[in-house]
Amino acid sequence: MLFSKLVGFYERIEAITGRIEMTNLLVQLLKETPPEIIDKVVYLTLGEIYPPFIGLELGVADRLALRAVKLASGMSEREIDRAYKELGDVGLVGERMLAKRSQATLFMEQLTVEDVYSALEKIAKASGEGSMETKVQILSGLLASAQPKEAKYILRIVTGKMRLGIADMTILDALAIVFGGGKEARDLFERAYNLSSDIGYVAKVAAQEGLEGIKKFKITVGKPIRPMLAERLSSAEEILQKIGGKCIAEYKYDGERMQIHKRGDEVLIFSRRLENITSQYPDVVELVKQHVKAGEAILECECVAVDPETGDMLPFQELMHRKRKHDIHKAIEQYPVNVYFFEALYVDGKDLTLEPLEIRRKTLESIIEEGERVKLSKAIITEDPNEIEKFFHEAIEEGCEGLVVKALGKEAIYRAGARGWLWIKLKRSYKSEMMDTVDLVVVGAFHGRGKRSGTYGALLMAAYDKRKDVFQSVCKVGSGFTDEDLQKLPELLEPYKIPHRHARVETGMEADIWFEPKIVLEIIGDEITISPIHRAAWSMIKEGYGLAIRFPRFTGRYRFDKAPEDATTTDEILEMYRRQLKKLTPTPPGGQEVT
Ligand code: AMP
Q1: Which of 53, 72, 184, 275 has the most crowded Cβ, counting Cβ within 10 A?
Q2: Which residue puts its alpha carbon closest to atom 14 of ligand 1?
Q3: 401 C-alpha to center of ligand 1: Å?
Q4: Which CATH homologous superfamily contains domain 229-431?
Q5: What's this model's pTM, rounded to 2 decimal places?
Q6: Active-site annotation holds for 252
């Protein structure tokens, strides 16, 4: 197919603004395109050469493109600069300059779509030292063989400024008309697109196999599936009503969503926005190889930063260290991650997206070998709003954002690319900061792992209840300890070790080691939340719940000057919680969402 023919369509499309007219022109273009190159035509029309998830961009800046124009046209730099200032569009500059060029173009061979596509591909793939020069050379060669109008579009594509106003969805409309017999087939085409995120590939399957090919459209390992999204409600009752009474409630981990594609030993990781982020997570690639017992699989998980010493989950922001390209190996050590799997979309040749959630979850269970760093999302199946609420507070306390409550039953398929009422998130509607430090008593400890084996991984801390004269737990703290602290603590606590929970200690947590309440440490946290596990101010705010400090850290101050009874009281914690509530500002819509 001649490139000039494609350019003819682009000229007409550029001149119109209505979507219907645009679709009609696209229909005509697709009808006249040979099936073998329809994918290329679709990519070029969108100003791309590959689907975005490939992550290979043309990357030519305007300056560089203008140099190629100079080489191809023989015009002076001054003249080109002047035109660029006047027109502000590299495409138009190229068109004008090439129209003025001195060499005869009469007997020039006409460019085909393939010629243009393969030159652009070479430009995209040129990398490393000297690649800018290579890009300019290839581009100027291409422009030298192009007619002025062709040059206009080549330059716009190469600089990422095609902007014909055509979106993937408009192309889907046109494909449904040309190959599906009308708009009624649109849903089938959309599904194919949602399963591959590759509009060029959908066009090719349609052109070569017709509507049958689209109906039987197959998932491909390596092409990301557009993610299913969740709606949001603010109470467990509402959610259960909406979802049909019974649900599976899962922790909503505060990390980065990953779609993992595995074929043998080859592993690709896509972000929620379907960017290839494999290079940021070599450790996750290894975990997948070790823990996913399937030859081929497409799975979804949430990747969460954890404290290397305690294994506790850390807030989402800690994953930012992975975004820097250098020092990724340092980041892996300093900011390790856990992965929590929640979906199986494709396993060993079987498309699971139309299977109900129970089946997908069972399949997931059968292929994931859990370990310290790899787990299935924590989940319960329930019909009881109180149980959901309790689970919600546990999730918050462990560092999660809340829950994703999911529908069960035959209808509960994986709706690729859609937000719907099959998944509903339950998050807190507010968040506020804890300002003051508190002095808490050590009442228990947990064995450390990794660098902390042989010492404590975390301590169980309690506040003092004056009225009952007991110590009630408020948090488990593992952060803020220096190596020196870790060495010192076992020595310091040894004299107070006892074989079971102290009679004056109240907690819902099982510590590995128990202590007589003696040593007081200064602690700061992010905020105070209600908790089904910790016992401070038990049932004062809500029946069956206490208060807890979220994301607690040791400040470095040992309060030897304080007796345990001088520790922060549970009344004070209660007061802090109430003050915190008063200060609350509602979350702006979508404000803290990790999406
Ligand atoms: P949204 O993106 O607003 O639709 O909310 C859902 C997001 O929660 C997903 O994109 C995931 O990143 C995240 N998430 C965390 N845990 C889960 C889970 N167990 N199931 C589904 N999504 C989860």
Answers
A1: 72
A2: 252
A3: 10
A4: DNA ligase/mRNA capping enzyme (3.30.470.30)
A5: 0.82
A6: yes
